[in-house]
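Allow me, if you will, to draw on your knowledge of protein folds for a short while. A protein sequence and the structure tokens that stand for its backbone fold form the material at issue. I would ask you to consider whether the tokens describe a fold that such a sequence might reasonably adopt. Thank you for your consideration; the sequence and its tokens are set out here:
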Amino acid sequence: MLEIASTAQRLRTVREAQRHFLGMWAAQCLADKSLDRMSTDLEHLQADDDPFDHDWSRLYRGSVLDD
């Protein structure tokens, strides 16, 4: 009986470590996506800095007007 209780405790410890790992992994994935999205947004902002650039296609990206 003592062996079963010890195994159960180790399984609880492993499950807790797994949950912690998955939580940290998910947080890192979200942080990486946020950084990628921010760098993409910065590239678009830098492209929009030219007042003489009259390429209006960026305004309609993903719009029904593209169809």
Remarks:
- Helices lie at 2-47.
- DSSP finds one helix and no strands in the chain.
